[in-house]
Specification:
- The complex is a heterotrimer of chains A (255), B (260) and C (249).
- With 255 residues, chain A is mostly helical.
- Chain A has one domain (2-243).
- Chain A is built from twelve helices and no strands.
- Chain A has helices at 2-17, 19-47, 55-75, 82-88, 92-95, 101-108, 112-128, 133-164, 168-181, 190-196, 202-214, 218-243.
- Chain A is globular, with a radius of gyration of 18 Å.
- Chain B is an all-alpha fold and 260 residues long.
- Chain B has eleven helices and two strands.
- In chain B, strand 1 and strand 2 form a beta hairpin.
- The two termini of chain B are 32 Å apart.
- Chain C is α/β, with parallel strands linked by helices.
- Chain C is built from nine helices and ten strands.
- Chain C is globular and about 50 Å long.
- The chains are: A mainly alpha (255), B mainly alpha (260), C alpha/beta (249).
- Chains in contact: A-B, A-C.
- The A-C interface holds A 2-3, 5-7, 9-10, 13-14, 17-18, 91-93, 95-101, 243-248, 250, 252-254 and C 14, 44, 48, 51-55, 69, 72-79, 81, 83, 85-87, 89, 91-92, 96-97, 100-108.
Chain lengths: 255, 260, 249
């Protein structure tokens, strides 16, 4: 545990070391997210509501997605690089350390740009999510579940590179979960909707959490926790199995 | 006349991208997912608004999104970042030693990388749009959308070089990429037809070059016979070339003064 | 029993090429062993398997009784690894980077800070404590790498070409300090090097690998005698030459 805390401390120390860049990168990401708000406001201004979703609900969805995404991509930044590191043989230095490789890798790097997402998401919830004590508690819970799910999914798709020898699966997984999580799943129908509740669980990343904040339902909350846990475990298991097939690239990088 | 080195560079990069099938497949799958999601959203929106939005039918919106996304997804998503890194690392300083203009060589290479992806996206996009939305609203305008897409990609590449050239002066060009990308998304018309924007924003978008990068080909593919859009794109390409050339020359002078 | 490192029957294949073919290697507490062999002999692959960076196709690796890969974390907490190519966090100061690494090895902050100060002195690099890692020369990086590796008092120190980038006087100092670490703390050393003079000065046992197999194992003098040469350098040349001649055929 002390080792993992030290890892996290190291990641933050490195991020802080370049303070000017940290601030500007976070600001740029906040601006980036503001553009999405602008898009949705323009969209709903034109169309009113779609499938029960209006501007207020979509901003709540965006708050959940950016906060959870900010946790995964900002604080556990290597989650999206597992595939590349596996294929390029960049894990050597990590494997010689006296810590469990996956937690170390995940905590090893902080991505300042995506910390902007985290900041933006929290601010958006405070400004547009009608925060009460109850709603805030649900927000925190669903965001943690969503972040677990995104992390597990990224580790899972990235770890496929150990078996396939290519890292494109991880890239695709990243784009798919972030992109599909940006839209309310109710605009889809048929097979697409089934896929979003299963193979690419984008529905559980944003739509289900945002709905839970507005109308809490214990059964749905339990389903969210179960899916998040399942993807977290699946990611861990795939990475562990894949590590046995890892071939050194003699790249002793900082991961 | 186009110089031989330009064509050789373009062809070499195109072959390299075509050979890397994994990357091409990822780009196309990503494109299909984006089109399916966004076009689906706009179709539902049209259905709940009496069948049209800002004069676009559900079918027209599908073809609009399929085309606007193809124009943008075809490009290297991190181009500005990559150019910035090349400038920051001194790679551009090395390129200056070659007997050809750096900017033209880089544009040729990026065009070479983008055109195979564009072809793959367009081929897939026609199928996706037809299956999910329906037959093109006016097939004849698709013939204009083809060259318009190539012009859109060229405009985008040249403009990104102009933006990325800020790396000659500041260390981190990554932030420029985010801002640029979002300008193309909204006032370039990639996510939303410009006619659906509020009046003042629509007027602003019409005065800027970003509409040449997504809106122009998408407008044509969605059944609007407006050949002047091609002329407008060509004009913007000229302006952007002059601007990027000027910025790069100024940057090169700075490299020579400061040292690369 | 009682080995700090025990590898049995290691085999590693890369497609049809057998890089390592049944290597056995043991290192006892406090022992100073050199792992030698010409380029392409399978030395690096063996080292990577011993460090747990790649999984052998056959055979086992135990570090201080912990079998890899399951016991990786506990096993690696008894290992320090030194190589010129190992990265340091560029944006941190040396003292800060070393202290964080101590934490990674489970040391309390105060203990880590104390160990950092002690070892910076021991390797005569205390003046680098407040330098940014990115500003270190390659020789300085190697020295800091050694400090980092001994910080948590590991039972086994693995050193890949430890003095390759150092001036002769600094290399001498490093060898002396390593002998002191080994003598005072009972730390075993496993060294790879192309510098046979260094090996003779630092190690009491050499293990030669050629074509993926151990071809000689014993005190330097015995190995030299086994091949009927004057010194280790000549044995090394002999093994490299044999490989070359066979390749020519």
């Amino acid at each position: 545990m002390r080792g993992l805390l030290a890892t996290m401390g190291n990641a933050f120390a490195e991020a802080r070391a370049n303070r000017a860049a940290l601030g500007s990168q976070m600001a740029v990401m906040v601006l980036n997210d503001v553009v999405w708000v602008v898009f949705w406001v323009l969209f709903f201004r034109r169309v009113g509501s779609v499938g029960g979703w209006d501007a207020r609900r979509i901003l709540l969805l965006l708050a959940v997605l950016t906060t959870a995404g900010g946790i995964t991509l900002g604080l556990l930044a290597n989650a999206r690089r597992i595939g590349t590191m596996a294929v390029e043989g960049e894990l050597d230095a990590v494997l010689t350390l006296p810590v469990a490789p996956l937690p170390y890798l995940l905590l090893r790097r902080v991505e300042p740009t995506n910390l902007g997402d985290l900041l933006f998401g929290v601010c958006l919830f405070v400004l547009s999510g009608r925060p009460t004590l109850g709603r805030t508690a649900v927000f925190v819970g669903v965001v943690l579940a969503s972040a677990t799910l995104i992390t597990g999914f990224l580790v899972l798709t990235g770890s496929l590179a150990f078996f396939l020898g290519r890292s494109e699966g991880g890239d695709l997984g990243f784009h798919a979960i972030v992109l599909l999580g940006s839209y309310p799943v109710d605009v889809f129908a048929g097979v697409a909707k089934v896929l979003l509740y299963s193979v690419v669980p984008a529905a559980f990343v944003s739509t289900v959490p945002a709905t839970l904040i507005d109308s809490f339902d214990a059964g749905r909350a339990a389903a969210l926790a179960a899916v998040a846990g399942a993807f977290g475990l699946a990611g861990w298991a795939t990475f562990t199995a894949g590590l046995r097939r890892y071939t050194s690239g003699s790249l002793w990088t900082r991961a | 006349m186009i110089a031989t080195w330009f064509l050789v560079t373009l062809r070499t990069e195109a072959r390299r991208v075509t050979a890397e099938r994994g990357g091409l497949v990822v780009a196309v799958v990503f494109y299909v997912v984006v089109v399916a999601v966004l076009a689906g959203l706009w179709r539902v929106a049209a259905a709940t608004n009496g069948g049209t939005i800002a004069g676009y039918s559900a079918v027209a919106l599908t073809w609009y999104i399929a085309t606007s996304e193809a124009a943008v997804v075809a490009l290297n998503i991190r181009m500005i970042d990559d150019i910035g890194r090349a400038i920051g690392s001194g790679a551009v300083a090395v390129e200056l030693l070659r007997p050809v203009p750096v900017l033209a060589l880089r544009v040729a290479a990026e065009l070479g990388r983008s055109l195979p992806r564009l072809a793959a996206c367009v081929g897939t996009g026609v199928v996706v749009a037809t299956v999910s939305g329906g037959a093109p609203p006016r097939p004849a305008t698709l013939a204009l959308a083809g060259p318009s897409l190539v012009l859109a990609v060229a405009c985008n590449i040249v403009a990104q070089h102009a933006f990325a050239a800020i790396a000659f002066w500041i260390r981190d060009a990554g932030s420029a990429w985010f801002l640029y990308q979002k300008l193309v998304f909204i006032i370039g018309g990639m996510l939303i037809p410009l006619e659906a924007l509020p009046g003042w924003l629509h007027a602003l978008a019409n005065a800027l070059p970003f509409r040449a990068m997504a809106y122009a080909p998408a407008r044509l593919a969605s059944g609007h016979f407006e050949p002047r859009l091609l002329v407008e794109q060509a004009a913007w390409l000229g302006v952007l070339l002059v601007a990027a050339g000027a910025v790069f020359r100024a940057g090169e002078r700075r490299l020579q003064v400061v040292g690369g | 029993m009682g080995y700090v490192l025990e590898a049995r029957g290691l085999v590693k294949r890369f497609k049809s090429v057998v890089a390592v073919d049944g290597v056995d290697l043991t290192v006892s507490a406090g022992e100073r062993v050199a792992l030698l062999g010409p380029n392409g002999a399978g030395k690096t692959t063996t080292l990577l398997m011993l460090l747990g960076a790649i999984t052998p196709d056959e055979g086992t690796v135990d570090i201080d009784g912990h079998r890899l890969p399951r016991g990786r974390s506990r096993g690696m907490s008894e290992v320090g690894f030194v190589a010129g190519y190992l990265p340091l966090p560029d944006r941190l100061r040396v003292r800060e980077a070393l202290s964080i690494f101590g934490g990674l090895c489970g040391m309390r902050r105060a203990d880590a800070d104390r160990a950092v100060a002690l070892n910076l002195e021991r390797f005569a690099v205390a003046h680098l404590a407040d330098r940014m890692c990115m500003d270190l020369s390659s020789g300085q990086r190697t020295l800091i790498g050694i400090v980092k590796a001994v910080l948590h008092q590991p039972r086994l120190l693995v050193l890949d070409e430890p003095t390759a980038s150092l001036d002769p006087d600094v290399a001498f100092r490093v060898r002396s300090a390593l002998l002191e670490v080994s003598g005072n703390e009972g730390t075993a050393l496993l060294v790879t090097s192309h510098n046979m003079v260094e090996v003779e000065r630092l190690c009491e046992r050499v293990v030669f690998i050629a074509k993926g197999r151990v071809v000689a194992d014993g005190p330097p003098a015995d190995v030299v005698a086994q091949y009927g040469h004057e010194d280790l350098e000549a044995v090394f040349m002999h093994l490299a030459g044999t490989r070359l001649n066979e390749a020519d055929i």
